[in-house]
Amino acid sequence: MDSAAAAAAAKRVQIEKAHNFMRQYRDPESRELKKLSANQFMDVWAHYDKDGNGYIEGTELDGFLREFVSSANVTDISPEAVTDTMLEELKSCFMEAYDDNQDGKIDIRELAQLLPMEENFLLLFRFDNPLESSVEFMKIWREYDTDNSGYIEADELKNFLRDLLKEAKKINDVSEDKLIEYTDTMLQVFDANKDGRLQLSEMAKLLPVKENFLCRQVFKEGIDGATKLTKEDIEKVFSLYDRDNSGTIENEELKGFLKDLLELVKKDDYDAQDLAAFEETIMRGVGRDKHGKISRKELTMILLTLAKISPDDEQ
C-alpha cells in the first residue's frame, strides 16, 4: 500500500470512528467483529463507560447498543437509524443474554462475554469456579499482597495474572511483554481511583465472589429494620464463614465476614485501612477486642445490632 492509499485508509478509519466507534473493529467485508487485543478492549470500555464508574448504563448503554447494531450493517447507516422501539426490544434481549447479575447495567466482565478477544486475555475474565465467599478472597489477598501494604501493586497483580494463566495451562503462550500489557490493561480497567494499584474494593471487582450472602434481601430488609432475622438466617451466616468448622470465625474467615459487612456500608469504595478500622469497631462492640475471634453468640449480637433488633425481640 502506497503512502496516499495508507493516508486514505487512515482517514476513513478516523471518520468511521467519529461516526460509529464500533465500526473500526468489524471486518469491512463480512462485518464480523475482529478479535480485540487487550488494549483495544480497553479502548472500547473507556469509550462507552464515559463517567468512569465501572458500568455501561443508561444513555451509555443506549449509545453502545445503537452503535453495536448499526456497525454490523454493510451500508454506512447512522446509529440514529435504530429507532427507540427497536432499541427497547434490542435492550431487552441483550440484557437477558448478557446481564448475568440482572442489575440493569453492563460491567466489564459481562462486556468481555460479548466481544471477541484474545483468548488468553479473555481467560482473565472467566473463572470456572467462582469464589464461594469472601473468606477465599481474603486468603488470595493475603497471598498476593506480599509486602502487606494493604494494596495489590502492579508487580503483585502481574504475579496474580501469571498464576491464573498457569492454572489455565496458558502461561507458555504468553510472553513477558504480553503479560505486562495484560497487567497494565487490568489496572486501567479496575483501578477506579487511578493511583496505580488496586485497593480491596477494586480487587473485589477483578476477582468476584459468587455471592455476598449478606446482600440477600432478608439482610437488606433486616438492616432497614423491616424484617426480623431468624435463628436459621444467622446459622447460615455462621456456617458460611466458619470454613474450618472450628466453632469460631477467625483470621481470613473474620476478615471475609468484615469485608462483606463493609460492602453493605461503603458499597464500591473501601480499602484495607477501612477494613482494619471496621474490625476494631466491631470487635470493641462485642467486648472482645483482643482475641480476634467471633463466636456464634457474638455473630448473633453483631447481626441483630445491625438489623436494629434487640435480642429480646428476636427471642
UniProtKB/TrEMBL annotation:
InterPro entries: Calbindin_Ca-bind, EF-hand-dom_pair, EF_Hand_1_Ca_BS, EF_hand_dom, EFh_CBN. It holds the Pfam family EF-hand_1. Residues 36-71, 85-121, 132-167, 178-213, 229-264 form the EF-hand domain. Keywords: Calcium, Metal-binding, Repeat. GO terms for cellular component: cytosol; dendrite; nucleus; terminal bouton. It comes from the Eukaryota. GO terms for molecular function: calcium ion binding. One of its GO terms (biological process) is regulation of long-term synaptic potentiation. Gene3D superfamilies: EF-hand. SMART domains: EFh. Belongs to the calbindin family. PANTHER family: CALBINDIN (PTHR19972), CALBINDIN-32 (PTHR19972:SF10). This is Calbindin-32 isoform X1. It comes from Drosophila hydei (Fruit fly). The lineage of its organism: Eukaryota, Metazoa, Ecdysozoa, Arthropoda, Hexapoda.
